[in-house]
Amino acid sequence: MGEAMNVLTWLTEFLEYLGGSRDNPPKGFPVAVANPVFWGLWWGALSLVIYIFCGQSSKFIYIDF
Amino acid sequence: MEGQANVTRAQFLATVMVCMAVLFTASLVVKRLTAHTVSRRLLAEARDASYEQIIALGNSLMRSGFVPEAFAPPAAAQSKSPAFNLAMGASSPAEQLLLLRAGLRAMSNVRLLLYGFYDFQLTDPVAFSSADLIGNHDILYYDEPEFARRFYRMSRYDTAAFEIERRLPMLAERGAVWGKVELLRRAISQQGMPKEVRNQFGRAADFTLLEAKSRDEFEQHCAVASQAPLNAPVAEIIHEAQERGIRVVFIVMPLPPRHVQLFYDTPSWTNYQQHIRQLLAASDVAYLDASHWIPEVTKFGDALHLSPEGAEEFSRRLGQSCGELRRSCGGE
Questions:
Q1: CB neighbours of B229 closer than 8 A, spacing ≥ 6?
Q2: Which domains can be identified in chain B, with CATH numbers?
Q3: The complex's ipTM?
Q4: Pick from A45, A48, A65: which is nearest to B89 by CB?
């Protein structure tokens, strides 16, 4: 139970760090903060998620052509 | 803060570069996945056509309502109809002009152009914002974009956005990606709900949104439109066809009894019709009012479009009405 809680706490901190709400990574975070490849891929992935889902307010009357 | 302080400017720029590489790759993927959008398929079909003599042009009403084989049956069992349906759903006269030009580049024997319209399609100015250019409007980004820009209005801000978007497939084809997400969203929202009525273009109920909200609103629109000239792309469609010696017929498309009774059986619409008849006559364009041809509501799939059965009936009757015209144009 204690181990599971530790994992959950670590996961929360990990996600908070990725999301920008925490300045320092949790212990054992595998990627150095200065690794441009990881962070470039992460930013790119976030940009793509925004791109894919930002059209919901558009008028979709014709859609099934 | 310790971690942030360790990031150098070079590392930050490298991160931005990697991010840009991801987006560039995504743009290439989007370009590949959208190589067969509706407008591209239609253009490809038009390019493959060659001997057709009759072109049907318009928006989804013509797309769903015109059956070439019913309008002009093939001469032999193995041959094709001499008519070609070049209409595209969710298109304005600006996109229709581009389709016509593409069709005329491929088909050298065209003698008759049938242009189907409803409501104020001929006189309402064609104007877009950048946000409007999704779905089948994507043709405006890639097929003769500079030429087409002369026939629709945009603000300076939207023009700047348009110029950027048309160079980036990920932005130009964003509607195709968003459309897939929307379909997924609708499929999820349908779980456990009564099945929605759909047709080839989408949710049937959505198309009531394209009608005027009330008779008053429609009549006010009629009053304004009765003073307006033909809009620029419609005038160019006529010009381009007549320049090649093609006879042009404008057809008020069949509409459901509700639309006809609520909007067309009014003095305002009669006045507007008189106005467009005069405009078209001045351009030597024939005019055909088929709005009352299909009185059965069951032969419509939604608030605007004919069902396949209604389309067959309309096309057959249109073929009979245009028979003499086709013969005089050498179409038979």
A1: B123, B235, B279
A2: 38-126+203-328 (3.40.50.1110)
A3: 0.83
A4: A65
Kindly provide the residue ranges of all beta strands, DSSP E only, lying in A1-65, ordered along the sequence. Answer: none
Measured between CA atoms, how close is A14 to chain B, in angstroms? Answer: 14
Strand locations in B32-140, DSSP E?
A: 54-57, 83-85, 112-117
CB B15 within 8 A of CB B292: no
Shortest CA gap B198–chain A (Å): 9
A18: chain B residues, CB-CB within 8 Å: none
Within 8 A of A62 by CB-CB distance, chain B residues are: 60, 89-90, 135-136, 201-202
Cα B109 to chain centroid, rounded: 24
pTM as predicted:
0.91
Structure tokens at B255: 């509409």
H/E segment holding residue B198? strand B198-199
Size of interface A-B (CB pairs under 8 A): 116
Q: What are the domain boundaries of chain A?
A: 2-53
pLDDT for B212-245, tens place per residue? 989 999 999 999 999 999 999 999 999 999 999 9
Give dist(CA B5, CA B8) in Å, integer.
Answer: 8
